[in-house]
Amino acid sequence: MSFKTTDLCDACDQAQACALPFVGFGRRRAFAGDIRTARYTDGISALRVLVNQPGNGQVLVIDAGGLEWRALFGDVMAGLVTRNGWAGVVVNGMIRDRAEIDEMDIGVKALGTIPRRADTGGRGEIDLPIHFGGITFSPGARLVADEDGVIVLPQGLMESSINVADAIAATAEYVIGSTPK
């Protein structure tokens, strides 16, 4: 991926930066794609539906709904996501099976790890706007993630349509400063 979240934020004031301290997992540390969403509601049924669908380069954003003591995502789901062509996964919650996921060609951002899995019953919800980390993740919006964080671009914009060159030059000028004559 050739675009950095820092440059995109500098070049596009409307880019929303998620204010959560995500940890990166998997071999793919940067990824981007259109958003699909799932919300945990007493079980992972909705999440199961999505990971078994073709990802078509999309990013799966999962809201754990405040669940902190159970993992919503693990190596089995990561394997399905990888085989089905998802660009990456963002979890507002915990994952498990870190060692196995770190060996996969996948990008995952989550708040941490915990060994116990989430309940398997419950329906959950898919493809609805979800809000966490101070921003809204709407289905179809563009998400970009790298080691610096997770951002959502304004509706209809892709990273390639944002001119980052001027923002990079302005940052360099600011850091270097003008030399006295």
What does this structure look like?
This protein is of the alpha/beta class and 181 residues long. The chain has a single domain (15-153), classed as Glucose Oxidase, domain 1. It has five helices and 14 strands. The strands form three sheets. Strands 1, 2, 3, 4, 6, 8, 10, 13 and 14 form a nine-stranded mixed β-sheet that branches. Helix 1 (5-11) crosses helix 5 (165-176).
Concise structural overview:
With 181 residues, the protein is α/β, with parallel strands linked by helices.
Q: From the 3D coordinates, which CATH architecture would you assign?
A: 3-Layer(bba) Sandwich
CATH superfamily: Ribonuclease E inhibitor RraA/RraA-like
Shape field = elongated
> What is the name of the CATH topology?
Glucose Oxidase, domain 1
pLDDT averaged over residues: 91
* Sheet having the most strands: 9 strands, mixed
Number of strands: 14
Instruction: Tell me the name of the CATH class.
Output: Alpha Beta
Write the layout of secondary structure elements.
Blueprint: H1 5-11, E1 16-17, E2 23-25, E3 31-39, H2 45-51, E4 59-63, E5 71-73, H3 75-83, E6 88-92, E7 94-95, H4 98-102, E8 108-110, E9 112-113, E10 125-126, E11 130-132, E12 135-137, E13 142-146, E14 149-152, H5 165-176
Helix pairs in contact: 1-5
